[in-house]
Amino acid sequence: EQHDANRSPFPPMKKVIFDTDIGIDDAMALLFLHHAPDVDLIAITTGFGNASVSDTTRNALYMKELFNMSAAVYAGAAMPVGSALGEGYADFVHGKNGLGDIPLTTPMCEAEAMPAAEAIVELVRANPHELSIVAVGRMTNLAMALALDPELPSLIKELIVMGGVFGYNGHRGNVSPVAEANIAGDPLAADRVFTSGIPTTIVGLDVTAETVMNEAYIDQLRQTAGASGEFIHQISRFYFGFYEKVIGKAECPIHDASAVAYLLRPDLYRTEAAVVRVATEGIAMGQTIHDSTRRVFATDDWLDLPTCNVCVGVDAPAVMALYLSTLSEL
Ligand code: RIB
Ligand code: CA
Q1: What is the Cα–Cα distance from 163 to 142, expressed in whole angstroms?
Q2: Comparing C-alpha atoms, which of 271, 300, 285 is closest to residue 86?
Q3: Does any ligand 1 atom lie closer than 6 A to the CB of residue 253?
Q4: What angle do CA 6, 10, 11 make, to 5 degrees?
Q5: In b/e form, how buried is each residue of 51-90, taking b as 16+ CB within 10 angstroms?
Q6: Is the pLDDT of residue 195 over 80?
Q7: pLDDT number for residue 6
Q8: Edge-to-edge strands of the sheet including 158-162?
Q9: CA-CA to 67 of 20 to 30 Å: which in 30, 61, 215, 281?
Q10: Among the residues of the chain, which ranges form H helices?
Q11: Is the per-residue pLDDT at 5 higher than 60?
């Protein structure tokens, strides 16, 4: 809804659940949420992916403590609901501990007893039509929550997913030529979520790969963003090392923080409404395939299903500036 500047000087708060496999770029996204003045981060739900779920949960608790966050942490899925493309965790990208192998102390605080999928159901039920879910790992926790409560799609305000790739702006997959990691890690879960009717926006590699941090940008963060900038500098050493090996340049795409950017400023993205299905087997496993034509094909796999908003374009300089200014303490 539009903010009514005549009634209150403050924009309305967005209540958010962050579903994540923390992860270097997940950590960057979490700090974005933490610093955004109009975000009330009520929960962090974790899952396997960049590291094991016990490591991603530890990472969430570590950051909660380090940055004094009030969000409750709920541990989630340790494995996919269906088959996954590839094996193991992305430790070659994010380090063995998921945070670029910086030294980590054991957090004093603990995760809640309730599993993530149950917590999602409970929190959505307690805040009907009010919760935004920003999901930047596998869709497993969400698929499990849908199985527990099929009425969730009509109760969630919006779901913003970092995942998938549709071929816009010349971008292709990062796990196979057609598959992106979050979707490839649990294609069945993603297919269930994208066809569920939850009002969903998909922020895929098509746009996340358009926004790129280099060393100069990290230096700017380090100079202006206090403890957050220093933390981002530390965790990004390993990440940059990985990208230097793969693309020959010390820079990284802003994947997960792009989902937060969409939450804060959807006007910075161009979207297309389309039915989105996910290939759950075969050589195209993990591919996100969209159709906005509503044509009758030889298959009716895309017919009469709810649509998602697929991000097809981005104002990249504006997203980069938004991240910097939100974290800046100057
Ligand atoms: O493909 C990029 C995505 O995979 C990001 O969410 C990253 O953190 C990993 O989970
Ligand atoms: Ca992630």
Answers
A1: 14
A2: 285
A3: no
A4: 95
A5: bbbebbbbbbbbbbeeeebebbbbbbbeebbbebbeeebb
A6: yes
A7: 59
A8: 72-74, 39-46, 14-20, 131-135, 158-162, 200-203, 308-314, 269-278, 288-291
A9: 215
A10: 24-35, 53-66, 91-94, 116-126, 140-148, 181-184, 187-194, 205-208, 215-224, 226-247, 256-264, 316-327
A11: no
Mean pLDDT of the chain: 95
Q: Is there an atom of ligand 1 within 6 Å of 21 CB?
A: yes
Q: Does residue 161 line the site of ligand 1, with CB under 6 A?
A: no
Q: How many Cβ atoms from other residues are within 10 Å of residue 289's Cβ?
A: 17
Q: Annotated catalytic sites, by residue? A: 21, 255
Distance (angstroms) between ligand 2 centre and the Cα of 142 equals 14
Ligand 1 centroid from CA 25, angstroms: 7
Beta bridge pairs of residue 202: 161, 310
Atom of ligand 1 nearest to the CA of 24: 8
Give Cα separations from 71 to 61, 97, 195, 278, 281 (angstroms): 10, 22, 29, 32, 37
What is the model's pLDDT at position 121? Answer: 98
Question: Encoding tokens for residue 146?
Answer: 């849908």
**What is d(CA 174, CA 324) in angstroms, rounded to the nearest whole number?**
26
CA distances from 195 to 40, 141, 241, 301 (A): 28, 15, 37, 10
d(CA 45, CA 104): 20
Of the candidates 150, 166, 142, 173, the one whose C-alpha atom is nearest the C-alpha of residue 277 is 166
Task: Tell me if 152 CB under 6 Å of ligand 1.
Answer: no
| C-alpha span between 32 and 324 (Å, rounded) | 9
Amino acid at 178: V
User: Among 18-27, 100-109, 183-192, 294-303, where is mean pLDDT lowest?
Assistant: 294-303
Q: Given the CA of residue 253, which atom of ligand 1 is nearest to it?
A: 2
